[in-house]
Amino acid sequence: MVSLQTPVCDFGQPAPDFALPGVDGRVWTRDQCRGEKGLLVMFICNHCPYVKAVRDRIVRDARELAALGIGSVAIMSNDPSDYPEDSFENMQRVAAECGFPFPYLLDETQAVAKAFGAVCTPDFFGYDAGLGLQYRGRLDASRKEAAPPDARRDLFEAMREVAATGRGPREQIPSMGCSIKWRGEGD
């Protein structure tokens, strides 16, 4: 399992558009997922220990960000052939078990992950109301285990700032996680 860190935030980079199938049977686009004040795009999967450690925090933060006008969406781009836990059926199960308050979408061709420049799970992209990138950092200090409950909520604080001012923090700590499982590539 390759562990990677995300690159530094490229402020203002536009959010790529997409139209992907969700676990709810709908096809979702970028603009259907966005909120009045911005959009949080999360690349996650079912099998990654980094994601499993923070699923409850992702749900909490997405709910609280929705109240601030930030829409959220999660995208699964792994090739499930080597990771059956990441199958569409398992995506549906995980979304239901965890009570995801956001669309959970399948990027079967992996074109959306490539368009965003996603490298790992979890990988977070926070956009302002005009869909310019303002945050490319971690959720919090969690790794393969959840950080203490009182850990600073980096992602939430950054996106709250984006909702209030349209700008993300200048200092951002990269997210860390498992590499995206690209088609035709082994670990």
Question: What report would you give on this structure?
Answer:
With 187 residues, the protein is an alpha+beta fold. It has a single domain (3-179), classed as Glutaredoxin (3-Layer(aba) Sandwich). 27% of the residues lie in helices and 21% in strands. It is built from six helices and ten strands; from the N terminus they run E-E-E-H-E-H-H-E-H-E-H-E-E-E-H-E. The chain has helices at residues 30-33, 49-52, 55-67, 88-98, 111-116, 154-165, and strands at 3-5, 19-21, 27-29, 38-43, 70-76, 104-106, 120-121, 123-127, 133-135, 176-179. The strands form three sheets. Strands 6-5-4-8-9 form a five-stranded mixed beta sheet. Strand 2 and strand 3 (27-29) form a beta hairpin. Helix 3 runs parallel beside helix 6 (154-165). The longest helix has 13 residues, at 55-67. The radius of gyration is 15 Å and the shape is globular.
Question: Which secondary structure elements does this structure contain, and how are they paired or packed?
Answer:
Layout: E1 3-5, E2 19-21, E3 27-29, H1 30-33, E4 38-43, H2 49-52, H3 55-67, E5 70-76, H4 88-98, E6 104-106, H5 111-116, E7 120-121, E8 123-127, E9 133-135, H6 154-165, E10 176-179
Parallel strand pairs: 4-5, 5-6
Antiparallel strand pairs: 1-10, 2-3, 4-8, 7-10, 8-9
**What's the number of extended β-strand segments?**
10
The string of secondary-structure elements, in order, is: EEEHEHHEHEHEEEHE
Runs in which pLDDT lies below 50 for 5 or more consecutive residues are none
- Our Rg estimate from Cα atoms comes to 15 Å
The secondary structure category is: alpha+beta
The order of strands across the largest sheet is 6-5-4-8-9
